[in-house]
Amino acid sequence: MFSLQEAEDNRTSKKQLLSSTPYAVQGSLKGRRLVEKKVPRGRSRAANSGLGKLVQGLRLGAAVTMLRCGSRSLGCLRATFRSLVQTERRSVSLCIDPSLGLNEEQKEFQKVAFDFAAQEMAPNMAEWDQKELFPVDMMRKAAQLGFGGIYVRTDVGGSGLSRLDTSVIFEALATGCTSTTAYISIHNMCAWIIDSFGNEEQRHKFCPPLCTMEKFASYCLTEPGSGSDAASLLTSAKRQGDHYILNGSKAFISGGGESDIYVVMCRTGGSGPKGISCIVVEKGTPGLSFGKKEKKVGWNSQPTRAVIFEDCAVPVANRIGSEGQGFLIAMKGLNGGRINVASCSLGAAHASIVLTQEHLKVRKQFGAPLARNQHLQFQLADMATRLVASRLMIRTAAVALQEEREDAVALCSMAKLFVTDECFTICNQALQMHGGYGYLKDYAVQQYMRDSRVHQILEGSNEVMRMLISRSLLQD
């Protein structure tokens, strides 16, 4: 439980987040009525709020990529920039407006994230994907807005926001680049683990540079022989004096080789979950090495490697919590991680729908815009319905997790299962509705589809989510 002073610090942090950035409405939230910025004539309110800017950013990014790669004709480039100019006058339908149901403060956080996504992420996401670039500088800019430790306490540099606030922010950021936002969400989960389960010395040592993203973090649970069956992990940590000697390896680690801090689940005791502990391993520790960079279908803006421990000596002082508490810590982290990654899927799906709306209005077949085709109208309606249902499910689960309700684990599992499945369906359908253009890397819909596919596998596969849900339903 937070103290009254911590609560006041959290409010102060929120004010600083909104007042210290060019992406936010300037000024304190305390003791004043929020005054909405006036929307210039001829521009929709949605376009002004960041959603219209998103499509602009995506089209600008595509155009820049075309210029660099020489992949399209001059006529196509002209059409791209013409669409870019016209986008500002188009609106995003109210029925899928992501700000519905949010309070004024949450709408401000959301606008900050949408604007940042449109200006700093969307124009670059294609290049990050194609060149497999890890956008360190951009993420440090995001950290200046408070996105490096969104739900970390304020006394160690975090923003002190709620799980619902966090979901809203990740959804908005993911519209700009789903892959990079997913890494930021994992980084946040690692910072939260240290903040929540570490002692004061550990919190003040590790959390401040994580919140500024001076240092990056990776979560190390999965092994070559244990994915869904995480309790059977084999990486060992044998105590010798004031150090643990780690041996073993972790697989599919996001940020592997690039991150500075590795939150590692390892075996300090016997078999099963009670023998697992959580230890922070810092980059540069002798005995720590990394495998080759994996070639992936999506998530190419974040490196994925094996993390290898060979007689890797780590101070006992780096153990988070007590011995045997590691599996509990890992699962607590994943409950939030499932909400986070589902929120990233939501952002990808929302962006895909916005782009599909644009495409159906502009693309003509048989002498009329595709938007007049009833079959495509019905498909778009189904996509929008899935999107809104997914958003409601995520936000319900986020509130349950924040309130530490008994049904939180099941609701987080339901949200992760439903949302990642439905949002991938949306992204895949968006690609189909773009026709052959959707299969070209000049068009963003294919990247949203590729980047969101893995969300059905990680943070506990969707098959495991069904196990957790059914266990909740059938327990005595």
Automatic annotation (TrEMBL):
Catalytic activity reported: (2S)-2-methylbutanoyl-CoA + oxidized [electron-transfer flavoprotein] + H(+) = (2E)-2-methylbut-2-enoyl-CoA + reduced [electron-transfer flavoprotein]; propanoyl-CoA + oxidized [electron-transfer flavoprotein] + H(+) = acryloyl-CoA + reduced [electron-transfer flavoprotein]; 2-methylpropanoyl-CoA + oxidized [electron-transfer flavoprotein] + H(+) = 2-methylpropenoyl-CoA + reduced [electron-transfer flavoprotein]
Cellular component, GO, one term: mitochondrion
Active site annotation, chain numbering: 459 (proton acceptor)
Domain Acyl-CoA oxidase/dehydrogenase middle: 219-312
Cofactor(s) listed in the protein's UniProt record: FAD
InterPro entries on file: Acyl-CoA_DH_CS (IPR006089), Acyl-CoA_Oxase/DH_mid-dom (IPR006091), Acyl-CoA_Oxase/DH_mid-dom_sf (IPR046373), AcylCo_DH-like_C (IPR036250), AcylCo_DH/oxidase_C (IPR009075), AcylCoA_DH/ox_N (IPR013786), AcylCoA_DH/ox_N_sf (IPR037069), AcylCoA_DH/oxidase_NM_dom_sf (IPR009100)
Any one GO molecular-function label of the UniProt entry: short-chain 2-methyl fatty acyl-CoA dehydrogenase activity
Any one of the GO BP annotations: branched-chain amino acid catabolic process
UniProt keyword terms in alphabetical order: Acetylation, Branched-chain amino acid catabolism, FAD, Flavoprotein, Mitochondrion, Oxidoreductase, Transit peptide
EC number: 1.3.8.5
Pathway(s) this gene product operates in, as recorded in its UniProt entry: Amino-acid degradation; L-valine degradation
Domain Acyl-CoA dehydrogenase/oxidase N-terminal residue range list: 103-214
Start and end residues of each Acyl-CoA dehydrogenase/oxidase C-terminal domain: 324-474
Subcellular location: Mitochondrion
Pfam family, any one: Acyl-CoA_dh_N
Key word S-adenosyl-L-methionine present: no
Function: Isobutyryl-CoA dehydrogenase which catalyzes the conversion of 2-methylpropanoyl-CoA to (2E)-2-methylpropenoyl-CoA in the valine catabolic pathway. To a lesser extent, also able to catalyze the oxidation of (2S)-2-methylbutanoyl-CoA.
Similarity section: Belongs to the acyl-CoA dehydrogenase family.
Name by which UniProt lists this protein: Isobutyryl-CoA dehydrogenase, mitochondrial
Species, as recorded: Cricetulus griseus (Chinese hamster)
Primary gene name: Acad8
